[in-house]
Design a protein that fits this description.
8 strands, 6-stranded parallel beta sheet, two-stranded parallel sheet, about 325 residues, Rossmann fold
């Protein structure tokens, strides 16, 4: 009788253990499911924030929409981008260090012929003058008035950007790129957010055509669906990645070379803004509240100054290698 009672107690304890483990397992699964749901919700919210921010900025600007088959750009008005009084304060701040660079540092005789392509992020139009990527291209056209083509595209216009590059390289206009025309290519690509992802994709597509790329610059790179922004293709000579780790949307922290023997990664440069204020008044309030770090790095004058220094180095025929400094 005692043995039977002990057996029943043992079975009851086993049942209790099974029930407790079952409850604990359900609890863990429930918490994991809840975390996944929050993560998906945060990503959806961040996407909506980017979209609304892009729409609000697009509606607030006074620049007319150009024809779809033309290259969009800020046309020169006779006033330097660095001296224009109509440029919003956040953009002046973003290009402040770039504009301090000496004009006499370069001359037409010592500058390579080059093609520089920029990509804006999110759903931003390529002629949106409220973004530093667009203003930076205008600055480059002023700094290199001959021999350098600097244009900006939306990140969904990768094929158009590729056709633009190929047409410029086709110097004899016969529709076929010769080995000599490819070898003379000096291409630099930069971009922010989805634009940084498109930067890597365009470089990879040019590589499939046998076209070398001098430099890629990624600023808080966010991989677009179907794209891989972490691996730099072997046709790229040098690449640099600027990122920040905070906010609902934050950039890729590491890029690597597909072939380290052919591509030099200048650095994965971590930027922080806890103790540094960056003017982001060119964005709407909800963007600044919910997604500010992703745009602080876009408006960071240190990033654009480093980009300008690297481009100066690449385009100078008597250049010395510039190592990317670690910025904090």
């Amino acid at each position: 009788m005692r043995r039977a009672k002990a057996s029943r107690l043992s079975r009851d304890e086993d049942y209790n253990d099974v029930e407790r483990r079952t409850i604990e397992g359900c609890g863990r699964r429930s918490r994991m499911k809840e975390r996944r749901q929050w993560k998906v919700a945060a990503q959806l919210f961040a996407g909506v924030t980017i979209y609304l921010g892009a729409l609000s900025v697009a509606h607030s600007q006074a620049i007319p929409v150009a024809k779809e088959d033309s290259v969009h750009r800020i046309e020169p008005s006779g006033t330097s981008i660095c001296e224009a009084t109509a440029v919003p304060s956040p953009l002046k701040d973003a290009l402040r260090q770039v504009c301090l660079r000496k004009r006499g540092a370069t001359s037409d005789a010592t500058v390579r012929r080059a093609i520089i392509i920029g990509f804006v992020g999110g759903f931003v139009r390529r002629d949106d003058a409220n973004h530093p990527e667009v203003q930076f291209a205008a600055y480059l056209r002023e700094r290199y008035p001959t021999g350098v083509h600097a244009e900006v595209f939306a990140n969904h216009e990768g094929q158009e950007a590729q056709r633009y590059v190929l047409s410029l390289l086709d110097t004899d206009g016969d529709g076929v790129l010769t080995a000599a025309e490819k070898e003379q290519a000096n291409v630099i690509i930069y971009g922010h957010s989805w634009g940084a992802s498109q930067t890597v994709t365009l470089a990879r597509e040019l590589g499939r055509h046998g076209i070398p790329v001098l430099l890629t610059i990624q600023v808080d790179s966010i991989a677009k669906p179907g794209q891989k922004d972490s691996t730099i293709s072997p046709n790229v000579a040098t690449a640099i990645n600027f990122y920040q780790p905070r906010g609902l949307i934050h950039g890729r922290s590491t890029i690597v070379a597909a072939d380290p023997a052919r591509t030099k990664i200048l650095g994965n440069v971590r930027m922080t803004y806890r103790d540094r204020r960056i003017n982001c008044d060119n964005y709407q309030w909800f963007v600044r509240v919910f997604n500010k770090p992703h745009h602080e790095i876009e408006n960071d004058p240190r990033v654009w100054d480093q980009a300008a220094a690297l481009i100066d180095s690449e385009l100078s025929t008597a250049r010395s290698t510039i190592q990317a400094s670690t910025l904090k």
